[in-house]
Amino acid sequence: xxxxxxxxxxxxxxxxxxxxxxxxxxxxxxxxxxxxxxxxxxxxxxxxxxxxxxxxxxxxxxxxxxxxxxxxxxxxxxxxxxxxxxxxxxxxxxxxxxxxxxxxxxxxxxxxxxxxxxxxxxxxxxxxxxxxxxxxxxxxxxxxxxxxxxxxxxxxxxxxxxxxxxxxxxxxxxxxxxxxxxxxxxxxxxxxxxxxxxxxxxxxxxxxxxxxxxxxxxxxxxxxxxxxxxxxxxxx
Length: 236
Known about the structure:
single chain; alpha/beta; Spore Coat Polysaccharide Biosynthesis Protein SpsA, Chain A; 2 domains; eight-stranded mixed β-sheet; two-stranded antiparallel sheet; 6 helices; 27% helix
């Protein structure tokens, strides 16, 4: 039986709105991107690890770790550039070099609390009837209870209005947050889709404590504490 080729993809551009140079900011003593690269290598899940970046500083970390490098065009690295376009660019780049694979696992650098089990569980979910597997976690907020909009006059109202307002969050439907622990998909699906949700999808649930996505400095501080407290690296 033919073994599926599974490639890891790390997309790390130079710019960032929330935190300047976020992907190379030190996280517990090493650049954030370096954690994702080392996780991918130590997990021993992948046939190849791909780093796509426009930054020579980030590319140096890829070369140091002896992984495959794709220099990303500047037009794909602006604040308004959809990351899906960078995924397509990376796939086409590999296909043009006759490098083929069956499954791609995108590992955003902003989720350093992932563990090996998260990735293997997501890969198992991707079958012939599934185009993409997302990672999600339970939300502590509910749009029909404690998520609100604010109008021009400063007044607030519940975001999702219901005929019969719920009195407790538990009375509402279950709500989940998307996480950036991983996206597991197929290259041919990515090339043909305009939106990740257009295809047949599944999801695996990640514990909320490990689902933190670094977007602001406060996230960075919390993630560093949790990384040590949960002994994440021992679970790679």
